[in-house]
C-alpha cells in the first residue's frame, strides 16, 4: 500500500512544472550560517561555463510564508560568480535561484543549501 | 397555549444588528463559501502550473500560512467560522446528482466514532512531514483536489454530513479546538423545543402557505425520547421554503458542546419559532462542564500532544534527535525515524495524560482544551505573522498569468519572527492559568476538603506545567524550515 502511495506521489511530483530553465548551478563547498555571507557559485549552460555580466540571484526558504532575499552576482570568470553579503536571515533550507537573459530569453537555475543557526 | 421565545440571559450574536441579519440570511453561508472556493480554485491553478517554490506560490502560502493562521484566530475569538465557510460543502449539488446513480450505503456502525478520523489525522500529520507538503505547491494543489473528491464521494455514497463528522481531519481539528471557542449554538427557550412538533433544527423544514413538515421525515427517534413532544402547537409565522436541518445530527436543545457543529446555521433557518441563538459564553464552559465520549476525549488528547510534536519539527533539536536516533537504530529511513519520533512524542504524551487523569480521561480531558488551542494557535501565529503579507503578491502573480489586469506586487523580505515569542508566551501562560482553573474546578467537585482537592489536583497540575514548559521551550527556539530529516 505504501509502495503504491509513494509511486503515485512520485508520479504526481514528476509531472510538476520544473523551475530550472537552462542553467545548472553548483555552490562552492562550505558551511553557511545565519547572517550576511558571501556566496560563490558556478553556473553552466549545456555543460559549459555560462558567462554574463547580469546574473541575478534570489533566495527563498522552502517553507511557505517566508519572504525573498535578492542580490546580484559579480562575474569572476569561467562561469564563477560571487554574491557579496547575501542575507541568510533565518536558519533552515534555502533555494537560490539565479536568472539571466540571453537573446531575449530568461534562463534560470536553482541550487539548494542548508543554513545553520 | 401560545408560547413565545423568552429572551435569553446570554448575549446572542444573531440579535446583533446587521451581523445577525446577515447570518440569518438564507445565502449567508454561500456568500462566505464563494470567496474561499475562488481562492481554492486559484490555489489549484497556481499549485499545478505556477512556480514550484512554496513561498512563491498561492497554493502553499494560502493553505499553510493563511488558512491555518486564520483558523486558529477565528476559533479563539469567534468560533468555527472556517467550517461555516467551507467550500467543500459546495459539492452538495453534485452530491445530490451523484446520489441518483450510486448505491446509498449506511456508514458502518464500527466507524461511527472519532477513532477513524483520529487515524486519518495522524496519517495527515505524518504525510505533512514526510512528503514536505508545506514545501510543495504541486502536492498542496492535489491535496485540495483530493479533499473535494473525498467530500463528494463520501457524501454521495453515505448520508450527507458523514464526511464532516467522521472523515474530515480538518473539520474535526476545528471541532476539537472549537470546544474552547467563545460562542455556541443553543436553544433560547427549552419549552418551545419540547412543544415543537417537527424538531425542524434536526430534521429540516419544508413550509408552504398551508403546511409545515420535516424536510425528509424524521431522522431518528432517540432525540424525541429525550425531549418528548407535547400536543401544543406554537403559533408563529415562519418563512416559507425548504430549509435543511443539521447535517451532523445535532438537536439544538440538547447541544452542550461545539463538537460536530459546523456553524452552518441550518438550525437557525430551519426553526420556525426563531428559537435558536448563537450565544456568547466563557471559553472555559465546555472545559469545566463537558464529559465527552471516550473517542472524542482521545482525539483531543492526541491532538494536544500532536500540536507539540508538530511545532517541535520546526526547531533544530528535532533534527538533532533524528540524527541521534538514526545512529542508535542504524538506519537512515526517514519514514521510520519520523514514525518513531511522532509515535513516541504523541504516545508518551497521551499515556502521561491518562496516568495524570488516573484512567479517567473523559473526566479530565477538559484541562487540555486551552493548552491545545494555545500550542496550535501559537505555532500557526508564527507562520501567519511572518508570512501574512506574502499572499497578495503570489495571488496577483497567478491572476496576472490568467490574463487578469492586475499589477504585480513585490514579495516582501524574509521576516525572522523573533519578536513573536512574547505573544506566544502570553498565550501559553494564559492557557496555563486557564487549564489550572479547569483542573481546580474538576478537583473541587463534590465538596471535597482542601487536602482531598489538592491530592486530586496535583497530578493534573504537574501535567499542565510539564505541557506548558515544553510549549515554551519549543516556541523559544529559533524556528527553521527544513525538508530533509537528516543532513
What this model shows, in words?
The complex is a heterodimer of chains A (117) and B (487). With 117 residues, chain A is mainly beta. Helices cover 11% and strands 58% of the residues of chain A. Chain A has one helix spanning 2-14, and strands spanning 24-27, 32-33, 35-45, 48-49, 55-61, 68-77, 80-88, 92-102, 105-116. In chain A, strands 1, 2, 3, 4, 5, 6, 7, 8 and 9 form a 9-stranded mixed beta sheet that branches. The model of chain A has no long low-confidence stretch (mean pLDDT 85). Chain B has 2 domains: 28-180 and 288-476, no CATH class; 185-280, no CATH class. In chain B, the strands form 2 sheets. In chain B, strands 3-2-4 form a 3-stranded antiparallel beta sheet. A two-stranded antiparallel sheet of chain B has the order 1-5. Chain B is globular, with a radius of gyration of 24 Å. The chains are: A mainly beta (117), B mainly alpha (487).
Write a compact overview of the structure shown.
The complex is a heterodimer of chains A (117) and B (487). Chain A has 117 residues and is mainly β.
Largest interface (CB < 8 Å): A-B, 29 and 46 residues
Helix proportion range of chain A? 10-25%
The computed structural class of chain A is mainly beta
Domain unit count of chain A: 1
Which regions of chain B contain 5 or more consecutive residues with pLDDT less than 50? 1-7, 221-236
- Count of helix runs of chain A: 1
The CATH homology group name of chain A: Immunoglobulins
- Strand residues, percent of chain A: over 45%
CATH architecture label of chain A: Sandwich
**Approximate helicity band of chain B:** 55-70%
Outline the biggest β-sheet of chain B.
3 strands, antiparallel
- Order of strands, main sheet of chain B, comes to 3-2-4
Tell me the number of strands of chain A: 9
Number of domains of chain B: 2
* CATH fold description of chain A: Immunoglobulin-like
Task: List how many beta strands of chain B DSSP finds.
Answer: 5
Amino acid at each position: 500500500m505504501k509502495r503504491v502511495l509513494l509511486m503515485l506521489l512520485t508520479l504526481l511530483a514528476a509531472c510538476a512544472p520544473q523551475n530550472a530553465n537552462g542553467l545548472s548551478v553548483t555552490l562552492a563547498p562550505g558551511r553557511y550560517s545565519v547572517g550576511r555571507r558571501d556566496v560563490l557559485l558556478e553556473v553552466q549552460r549545456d555543460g559549459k561555463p555560462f558567462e554574463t555580466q547580469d546574473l541575478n540571484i534570489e533566495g527563498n526558504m522552502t517553507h511557505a510564508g517566508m519572504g525573498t532575499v535578492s542580490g546580484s552576482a559579480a562575474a569572476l570568470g569561467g562561469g564563477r560568480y560571487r554574491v557579496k553579503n547575501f542575507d541568510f536571515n533565518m536558519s533552515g533550507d534555502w533555494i537560490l535561484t539565479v536568472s539571466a537573459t540571453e537573446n531575449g530569453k530568461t534562463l534560470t537555475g536553482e541550487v539548494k543549501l542548508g543554513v545553520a543557526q | 397555549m401560545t408560547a413565545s421565545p423568552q429572551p435569553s440571559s446570554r448575549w446572542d450574536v444573531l440579535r446583533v444588528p446587521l451581523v445577525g441579519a446577515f447570518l440569518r440570511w438564507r445565502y449567508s453561508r454561500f456568500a462566505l463559501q464563494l470567496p474561499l472556493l475562488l481562492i481554492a480554485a486559484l490555489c489549484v491553478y497556481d499549485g499545478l502550473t505556477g512556480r514550484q517554490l512554496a513561498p512563491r506560490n498561492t497554493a502553499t502560502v494560502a493553505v499553510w500560512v493563511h488558512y491555518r493562521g486564520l483558523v486558529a484566530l477565528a476559533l479563539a475569538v469567534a468560533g468555527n467560522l472556517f467550517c461555516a465557510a467551507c467550500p467543500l460543502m459546495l459539492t452538495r449539488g453534485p452530491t445530490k446528482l451523484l446520489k441518483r446513480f450510486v448505491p446509498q450505503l449506511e456508514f458502518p456502525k464500527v466507524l461511527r466514532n472519532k477513532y477513524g478520523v483520529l487515524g486519518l489525522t495522524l496519517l495527515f500529520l505524518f504525510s505533512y512531514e514526510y512528503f514536505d507538503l508545506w514545501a510543495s505547491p504541486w502536492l498542496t494543489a492535489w491535496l485540495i483536489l483530493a479533499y473535494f473528491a473525498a467530500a463528494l464521494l463520501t457524501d454521495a455514497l453515505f448520508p450527507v454530513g458523514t464526511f464532516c463528522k467522521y472523515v474530515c481531519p480538518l473539520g474535526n481539528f476545528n471541532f476539537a479546538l472549537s470546544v474552547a471557542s467563545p460562542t455556541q449554538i443553543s436553544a433560547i427557550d427549552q419549552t418551545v423545543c419540547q412543544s415543537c412538533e417537527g424538531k425542524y433544527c434536526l430534521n429540516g423544514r419544508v413550509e408552504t402557505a398551508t403546511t409545515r413538515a420535516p424536510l425528509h421525515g424524521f431522522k431518528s427517534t432517540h432525540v424525541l425520547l429525550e425531549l418528548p413532544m407535547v400536543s401544543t402547537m406554537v403559533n408563529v409565522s415562519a418563512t416559507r421554503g425548504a430549509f435543511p436541518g443539521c447535517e451532523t445530527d445535532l438537536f439544538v436543545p440538547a447541544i452542550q458542546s461545539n463538537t460536530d457543529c459546523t456553524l452552518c446555521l441550518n438550525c437557525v433557518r430551519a426553526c420556525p419559532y426563531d428559537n435558536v441563538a448563537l450565544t456568547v459564553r466563557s471559553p472555559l464552559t465546555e472545559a469545566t462542564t463537558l464529559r465527552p465520549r471516550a473517542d472524542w476525549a482521545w482525539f483531543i488528547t492526541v491532538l494536544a500532544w500532536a500540536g507539540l510534536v508538530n511545532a517541535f519539527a520546526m526547531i533544530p533539536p528535532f533534527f538533532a534527535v533524528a540524527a541521534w536516533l538514526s545512529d542508535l537504530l542504524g538506519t537512515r529511513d526517514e519514514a521510520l525515524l519520523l514514525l518513531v519520533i511522532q509515535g513516541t512524542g504523541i504516545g508518551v504524551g497521551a499515556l502521561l495524560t491518562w496516568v495524570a487523569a488516573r484512567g479517567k480521561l473523559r473526566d479530565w480531558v477538559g484541562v487540555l482544551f486551552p493548552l491545545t488551542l494555545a500550542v496550535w494557535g501559537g505555532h500557526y501565529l508564527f507562520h501567519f505573522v511572518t508570512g501574512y503579507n506574502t499572499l497578495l503578491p503570489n495571488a496577483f502573480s497567478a491572476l496576472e498569468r490568467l490574463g487578469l489586469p492586475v499589477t504585480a506586487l513585490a514579495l516582501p523580505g524574509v521576516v525572522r519572527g523573533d519578536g513573536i515569542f512574547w505573544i506566544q508566551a502570553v498565550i501559553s501562560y494564559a492557557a496555563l492559568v486557564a487549564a489550572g482553573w479547569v483542573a481546580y474546578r474538576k478537583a473541587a467537585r463534590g465538596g471535597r476538603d482542601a487536602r482531598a482537592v489538592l491530592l486530586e489536583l496535583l497530578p493534573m497540575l504537574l501535567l499542565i506545567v510539564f505541557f506548558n514548559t515544553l510549549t515554551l521551550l519549543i516556541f523559544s527556539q529559533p524556528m527553521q524550515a527544513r525538508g530533509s530529516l537528516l543532513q
